[in-house]
Amino acid sequence: TGIKILPVVVQVPAEKHAAGRIEQMHSGALIVPERKTGHDFAALFEGARTNINVSNDFTTQAWWKLLNNAALGGVCALVLRKNAIAADPEIRSLILELMGEVLAVGRAEGAKLPDDAPEKALRMVLGAAPGHWSSITADRRAGRKLEWQARNAVVGARGRKHGIATPLNDVITTLLRAADDGLA
Known about the structure:
Layout: E1 9-11, E2 14-18, E3 21-24, E4 29-33, H1 36-44, E5 51-55, H2 58-79, H3 89-108, H4 117-128, H5 135-141, H6 152-162, H7 167-181
């Protein structure tokens, strides 16, 4: 009778080029938690080209996604560059340090991320979509409000809850908030 909310990790690199025109870089996947609503959701896509993965460890999947969203997405949005900016050694180093903070907080939240998760996550994105504009970067370029609260701000807030310092994510949060304020 009530509305049921199902969290979904969306791993579909796509860009809107014009009204009604979206370019999808590769097939991607939607990841849902292992529960009845997750299986019901997956059933809606039977026979479709979209990959739906039902995960028994949704927390880990969500933090894998946040590794790139907070670190790579935040940096790309600030410098208004595509994912390939991470090939620059100094930028890559900064992104990996940001990811290290996300890794520590994610583990405190129960995510089972390996030590090399930052390198793996960055390598996967750069291998699949180096020419991709992250969604937060596309929003900034288009003058839309930014989703920094669900990216870097959440890393800082959850870090403080666990006593984990997140100075780099806090700086990125402040800068993205300031950029967002400039859009008003």
